[in-house]
């Protein structure tokens, strides 16, 4: 008797056989195009690479469809080949840009798929003469900031704080950060990009057109093509900036009043001052702990004068501000280390 269990097993067998057939063709296509750095499900490194940026453990179970392969191109030509080979056999492409994803969407799909991980495309080129920087799509914010900081104390990039965030997802999603009030989002400071479309064609801003260029800067990553590199504007900052990183603990009522006041104050501070707050549960059920983080583009005396006039309820003293370079401030705001090092 042909049971439903036998029928399902038969379908799985057919699927495995089909995968074996086109799988060899895909691997042959990649190899002939010079793409050697990849791993398949039979490789001992497969699970490690798959889970490298997988934060949502719902997608780590055996019931979830796994990628046929994880491809790690090492230059733009290999990225083109990777896209072309996967497209030829109608594989869904998921792009990972070297950082992390709390949703883990780059690691899942409903149909047979591959992950093209840009983690090896992480070079950053800084040109201080013309003040742009080219950032490959697999670089993290930490790698970008390090490259800028080792080149100049007077330049910065407008983007987020977490150094493990990949620029690809960050720039394509907008990219908020502590320079946004002064210079706009990360996406506002992208002036060009190198995009690989679904047919493997290479585009810059001119050839992709302004509509696509607009879409890749805030419309989300992976839907418009694979961005090999971003050209971003370097922004002037003073040699010394001031950082605020203080906790305020209080009752639910007093904390609500303080955060409500922050909502009124933060948008009307001068553009050189960015003030953020993170509120979370305190040590007991009736307490809220609020972390206030600020960046002021200037000396701490000026920062202190500004905050005491606009927000005296915060109870800041001048020594609450720490003076440092801009690149050191990115690390301090992430780790609150007293002596940040590049």
From TrEMBL:
<dbReference type="InterPro" id="IPR016169">
    <property type="entry name" value="FAD-bd_PCMH_sub2"/>
</dbReference>
<dbReference type="InterPro" id="IPR016167">
    <property type="entry name" value="FAD-bd_PCMH_sub1"/>
</dbReference>
<dbReference type="InterPro" id="IPR006094">
    <property type="entry name" value="Oxid_FAD_bind_N"/>
</dbReference>
<keyword id="KW-0732">Signal</keyword>
<dbReference type="InterPro" id="IPR036318">
    <property type="entry name" value="FAD-bd_PCMH-like_sf"/>
</dbReference>
<feature type="domain" description="FAD-binding PCMH-type">
    <location>
        <begin position="63"/>
        <end position="237"/>
    </location>
</feature>
<feature type="signal peptide">
    <location>
        <begin position="1"/>
        <end position="23"/>
    </location>
</feature>
<protein>
    <submittedName>
        <fullName>FAD linked oxidase</fullName>
    </submittedName>
</protein>
<dbReference type="Pfam" id="PF01565">
    <property type="entry name" value="FAD_binding_4"/>
</dbReference>
<dbReference type="GO" id="GO:0071949">
    <property type="term" value="F:FAD binding"/>
</dbReference>
<dbReference type="InterPro" id="IPR016166">
    <property type="entry name" value="FAD-bd_PCMH"/>
</dbReference>
